[in-house]
Amino acid sequence: MSMLRYVGLIGLVGGSFLFAGGATTPVKAKVAPVADDNVWIVALKNGTLGLGVDLTRPLNDYFAVRLNANGLRVHGLNIDLKKYIDVDIDGVDTLIDIDYLSLGGLLDWHPFKNSFLVSVGAYYSDNTISGIANATGKQIVFEGNQIKNNVVDTITSTLSANHFAPYAGIGYSNISKSGWGFTWDMGVMYQGTPKIKTTVKPMPAGVGTQDLRDVEQIASDTDKDANKKIADYAITKFYPVVRMGIQYSF
After folding, report:
1. In whole angstroms, what is the distance from residue 67 CA to residue 65 CA?
2. In the chain, domain spans
3. Where are the alpha helices (DSSP H) in the chain?
4. In which region does residue 211 sit, left (phi positive, over 0), alpha (psi from -120 to 50) or beta (all else)?
5. Torsion angle of alpha carbons 226, 232, 238, 244, nearest 10°?
6. What is the third-level CATH fold of 38-249?
7. Entry pTM
C-alpha cells in the first residue's frame, strides 16, 4: 500500500468516527425525580392539640419540612370535679378552663414516595387545664375541713407539663400533586410527668388570717399526694396527638 493510500484510509476511518459521534445522542445520567420546586402545602387541622394550621415545604420526593401552630381556649365549662379527680370538696361550683397553645417543627419522611409519612420533631407547648372552685354558700368543705366563705374567694388547681416535648408519629399527606387533599397525623409527644399546682385566692377580709394559712397548707398537701399518684403512671408522660383535616398544594 502506497503512503498516499494509507493516509487516505486513516482519514476515512477518522471521519467516520467523527460524524458518527456527532450524530449520537449523549447518554443522560439517571437522576431520581424530585417534587416540584414550587410546591407549598397549607393544611387546616383539628384534633387533640386543638385547631391548627400546617405549612409544609417538600425537599424532594422523600422528605419535607413542616411547621405547625395549634390552639384551643375553652373557659367556664361547668363540671363536677369529684367525678374526675380524687378531691373532697363541697359548697362550690367548679368550672374548667382549657388553654392550649403549641408550636411544632417536624421533618416528614415519605419512605415509599407516596402519601404515607413518618414524622420526627419537637413541640413547644403551653397546655394547661384548670379547675376553679367558686364558693356558693357560707361554707366550703375542702378535704374534710370547713372553711368560712369570707376567707376564700376561689381555689384553682392547674394541670400542666413540660414546655419542650419531642414528637414521633405517622401520617398522610400528598406532597407531589397540586390541589386539595385529605391529611392526618397520629403520634405522641413526650411531655414529662404532668403536675398539679393549687393556688388559693383569698377574700380581702381573709388575707393574713390563720384560716387562710390552713387552707393553703391543705392545698399544698393535696398537691403532693396528687402528684405522687400521677408519677406512678408512666403513660402520663406521653400526650397523644391525633390531627386530621384538609390541605391545599400550590
Report:
1. 7
2. 38-249
3. 3-23, 210-231
4. alpha
5. -70
6. Porin (2.40.160)
7. 0.77
